Amino acid sequence: MNAKMVALSMAALTCLAASETAGATPPLTAPDRQTVEVSLPAGRTTFPPGQGSELANAHCVICHSPGMVLRQPPLSFEEWKAEVNKMRVVYAAPLPADKIEEIARYLSAINGKP
User: Is the keyword Membrane in the record (predicted)?
Assistant: First the structure.
């Protein structure tokens, strides 16, 4: 580093230090905290009864509310099967591979294409 660079660096540091002390703003303080209560609408906590509902309640509700699943567009059995398999393979849903078709049949029964 040459002498000119050192002199410029020292001048910049001096200006920075002077600006930090002259007219310094007071430190920020944390805002007062308050507790609030929120009432959420009651939602479905389990899937509708049917063959496969126990599996859906045991495996799907880990990540999805039944209401969210029921609000999805109706899918065919093959489409539900692909969705359930995606949850298992891509998102590591703890679902045995041999239960994919049973859950897909159930989902297509409660929210399937006519």
Answer: no
- The answer to whether 55 and 99 have CB atoms below 8 angstroms apart is yes
Is residue 15 domain-resident? no
Domain with 104 in it: 53-111
**The one-letter amino acid at 114:** P
- Determine the Cα angle at 75 with ends 48 and 99, to 5°: 60
Q: What Cα–Cα distance (Å) separates residue 18 from each residue in 8, 48, 59, 110, 112? A: 15, 70, 62, 71, 71
Along the 114 residues of the chain, how does pLDDT read in single tens digits?
Answer: 577 776 667 777 676 666 655 566 677 787 788 888 877 666 678 999 999 999 999 999 999 999 999 999 999 999 999 999 999 999 999 999 999 999 999 999 999 997
